[in-house]
Design brief:
The protein has 293 residues and is an alpha+beta fold. It contains seven helices and 19 strands. 20% of the residues lie in helices and 36% in strands. The model has no long low-confidence stretch (mean pLDDT 91).
Length: 293
């Protein structure tokens, strides 16, 4: 049962204001309490009389989160749900340009919400990644993300040398501009732009894709989803302060010599409510323009 629904809009998305008002009224009329983060509530104007929570606390206080924006906004909410260790489902309403994750269109918003309240919505469980950075035996950063963990160089144009282990077995040294460790959901994000494969979200797998590799031998690889991927900085590449690790592009930390990044499948999947009229392949065909001449 959905008693409280969180609403998060892309920051500064003034075009969403009339739809927010409609959504708040629609939920209230059906006995569902709308809960907005402060920035989303500000889009309604000073006269708005709604409950507000911070974006960090919102996933713990509601039964559903409705996101109005693009994939970046949905990722920011998904990662907060992952870090909070809860299973709050997300319904993404597309206000962006691509929208692999926010696949529900504005005309579909009300039917999708009706299905959610009735308990008949299509729910996709998407694998999330647990990224842990260690330094000197302690934890520097830990985040649960939906799309990817990326190691990349900074402003200085030097190759990164990375030693990659899977399940404690040495796999290869990567010499490249960076390395993407992606979930199947993240396969259509940075991974795809870097030449990695598209992997259906229901496939139990993790992806490793070098960014602009120096050697032709460094190619993308798909490994079992149960794998533990460890990456260390190898000698000869970019130095301290020149290598960074980003988590879904939402936050990042510098990677220093001796640091170790470990990426595994997270304990909980993300529950993503899908379009009531279109499936995954429909989204791929539309967004990638398959079949067009």
């Amino acid at each position: 049962m959905i008693a409280r629904a969180g609403i998060v809009a892309k920051r500064g998305l003034t075009a969403a204001a009339p739809h927010l008002r409609k959504l708040v009224r629609w939920l209230a009329d059906r006995g569902v309490e709308p809960v907005l983060d402060a920035e989303t509530a500000a889009l309604l104007g000073e006269a708005a009389d709604v409950r507000t929570e911070s974006r960090d606390d919102l996933p713990r206080t509601v039964d559903l989160v409705v996101v109005l924006g693009g994939d970046g906004t949905l990722l920011s909410v998904a990662d907060r749900i992952g870090d909070a260790g809860c299973s709050t489902p997300i319904l993404g309403i597309n206000f962006g340009r691509i929208g692999f994750l926010t696949e529900v269109t504005l005309p579909e918003m009300v039917p999708a919400l009706e299905s959610a309240l009735a308990g008949t919505a299509v729910v996709h469980e998407r694998v999330m990644l647990n990224g842990l950075m260690r330094r000197d035996g302690g934890s520097v950063a830990r985040h649960v993300v939906l799309n990817d963990v990326v190691i990349t160089r900074g402003l200085i144009s030097r190759l990164i040398y990375l030693a990659v282990h899977i399940d404690d077995l040495f796999i290869t040294n990567v010499r490249a501009d960076g390395l993407i460790i992606a979930s199947p959901t993240g396969s259509t994000a940075y991974n795809l732009a870097a030449g990695g494969p598209i992997v259906h979200p229901e496939v139990d797998a993790l992806l490793l894709t070098p960014i602009a590799p120096h050697s032709f031998a460094n190619r993308p690889i798909v490994v079992p989803g149960r794998s533990a991927i460890s990456v260390r900085s190898a000698a000869g590449g970019a130095t301290t302060g020149e290598v960074f690790v980003s988590f879904d592009g939402q936050t990042g930390v510098p990677m220093e010599a001796g640091d170790e990044l470990t990426v595994t499948r997270a304990e909980r999947p993300l529950r993503l409510l899908g379009s009531p009229t279109r499936g995954y392949y429909d989204t791929l065909r539309e967004k990638l323009r398959w079949g067009e001449r």
